[in-house]
Design brief:
408 residues, Rossmann fold, D-amino Acid Aminotransferase, Chain A, domain 1, 16 strands, 25% strand, globular
Amino acid sequence: MSDSETRPINLVCLATYFKGVDFIRECKSRGCQVVLITKEKMLGEDWPRESLDDLIALPNDAGPDLFIHLVSLLARQTKIDRIVALEEFDVITAAQIREHFLLPGMSGATARLFRDKLAMGAQAKEAGLNVPDFVSLLNHDEVRDFLERVPPPWVIKPRSDVSAIGIKKGLEPGDVWRAIDDLDRRERLRERSPHHLLSRFISGDVFHVDSLVSNARVIFAGANVYGRPPMDVAHKGGAYISHTILRASDDEKRLLEINLKLLKALGLKSGAAHAEFIKNTVDGEFYFLEVAARVGGAYIADVLEAASGVNLWREWAKLELADQPTSRKLPMPRKEYAGIVLSLAKQEYPDTSSYNDPEVVYRVKKKHHAGLIVRSKKLERVQELLTEYATRFAEDFEAVMPPLERAE
């Protein structure tokens, strides 16, 4: 009997932001020793301390080398079996630690495909997916050619940030060149123009597909649509909405097919993924936007659990703890509908008790946020409630903040 079979699995989780509570609890419930490494700014969050054997905070500006050094110190006393990134910003750091210690899991090369929008776009295009025209901002001759060849509007986006952070829109070439000049004045080198790309802007509804992958097979996937594109919410304010799309519809079938093709092309062997696609209002086709090797944020996992009964965090934990790659199947998910309405709130702890429809299954408990998740067997009822609640939120709670230029 091997040493790993006679002792608990020792798991180190990385979380630059507050994520993965259910993941941690599931691992602990299965007898693991769990250490969480976060940053000082997150130390006061409501981590499940009863499920942690240690909680360590590094300085907010800590880089990969400091993470590797810390894990090296931990490894002197305890043999480390798994390294898991619970947050997107930690995916590459986790891969570097795995490679340093020869641990199983996603490699650095694969991790880069899930963090670098330029790399993932090129890989998706090579696999035959529709991808909006794009170009790196590295070579100015290529940028000029792109601006002459691709009609506006365009968007400039960081290659490695998440969601709508740092995205700027351009309507004429001068907008793009001014944006490049502004970027190149940034103090930090990794925020300058070579770390950005220029892309054709496509108008349409934005969808996301959230998956669990085991033994290079998608064993669960749920397709949702945003009420408004995340970039619109980030730049113009208003309520964020996401809900299940019509089951067995042509859109669902197509999205699940494209998502499967994407994850295979990017080489995801095991874990969770969150992919975003836009349905072009002009040609009706789906175009790939971006993908991450993580559970979706903004309570997406809670919406999926409400609709299907599948908790992505707990199921991902089970995949991480498997001794060998497995083709295990999940219990048959239920086929209901769910959605979320979420908004910044003027109140520190907004009171949503007057929103008392029986379909409400979850109330967001986060400072200066108002949010509700609803569930129904009928999509129309979910859409009706989300539309009504978004209108009421605007009067009862809504606050607006300028979009982030970069992750804090």
